[in-house]
């Protein structure tokens, strides 16, 4: 069994306005950066031995700041929302049609949640090694896909999982993709 911790990056200005960030590499807000030392202290007290993170700065920078062995995996990047990235949902004319099926819907120039889910799980499975406590510091889409996988939730329900900035989840991960959820979306720090 491997303790697998999942942490969403800190808050961003665009996300607070209800805009999908996708691959935009926007920073964590000043308030989020001020909160980071408390989050870091809590994470370092969990016995985490290694960190897997996205290549986007809002996740990667804090992951590397932990000072633990880290692996940057582009496969853990957020779902690409293509032409819609940074636009508040109420300014996206096709938003209503997209939300009819947000799991399979593909924004112009972007990717579906199913595609994001597949690449995130592939990246994770290729990087897991041993039983040491592991932290995945990434984004809402990939984290929902990973959690859904371990608790047996179909991808079509993964987007029903709420996940706040700096929300911390623990799954005790067993072989063959089975996991026991210990807690979910607990505020870290």
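Q: What amino acid sequence fits the structure above?
A:
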């Amino acid at each position: 069994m491997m303790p697998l911790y999942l942490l969403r990056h800190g808050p961003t200005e665009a996300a607070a306005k209800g805009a999908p960030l996708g691959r935009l590499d926007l920073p964590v807000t000043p308030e989020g950066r001020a909160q980071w030392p408390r989050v870091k202290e809590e994470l370092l007290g969990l016995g985490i031995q290694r960190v897997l993170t996205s290549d986007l700065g809002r996740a990667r920078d804090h992951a590397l700041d932990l000072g633990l062995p880290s692996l940057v995996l582009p496969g853990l990047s957020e779902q690409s929302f293509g032409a819609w990235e940074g636009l508040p949902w109420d300014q996206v004319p096709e938003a209503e049609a997209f939300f009819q099926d947000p799991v399979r819907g593909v924004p112009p120039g972007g990717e579906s949640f199913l595609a994001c889910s597949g690449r995130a799980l592939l990246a994770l499975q290729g990087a897991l090694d041993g039983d040491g406590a592991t932290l995945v510091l990434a984004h809402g889409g990939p984290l929902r896909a990973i959690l859904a996988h371990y608790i047996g939730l179909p991808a079509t329900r993964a987007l029903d999982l709420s996940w706040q900035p700096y929300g911390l989840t623990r799954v005790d991960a067993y072989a063959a993709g089975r996991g026991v959820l210990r807690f979910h979306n607990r505020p870290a720090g």
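Q: And what stands out in the fold?
A: Helices lie at 13-16, 30-44, 57-65, 95-98, 113-127, 140-151, 155-158.
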